[in-house]
What we know:
Layout: H1 7-29, H2 43-69, E1 76-78, E2 81-83, H3 87-120
Antiparallel strand pairs: 1-2
Amino acid sequence: MGALSDPRVRYLGPLGLWLAAAVAISLIEGTPDRLPAVALGSSVLLHALRAGALFAIGFAVATVLTRAGAGRLPTVLGTSGIGYDAEETRVTTTALADLQEQVDEQQATLDGLAEQLDALRPKS
Length: 124
């Protein structure tokens, strides 16, 4: 089985690599001569903020792609986050479709029995 069977290695390894890449990208980009106000005059804070933003964007994209690969697309994608339909909704929809099919079969059977009963009644 090995180390790849451990979920911590499977997920935390790539996340750690992505975080390191985000920090490297920020450092390669460099520090501007005039820091933005959000950095509060600290180049270290600027790089931390940049790396955090890159990491969050990459994480969101990876989440959507991973779930899309499993056949689940987001229903909400915005500044408030990513939202997915509950799995129970799919199960309920499938169960309702199966139930409707059974009801339709029962209705067809009842219609057939009603026709047979009508045929047996004497005509006046």
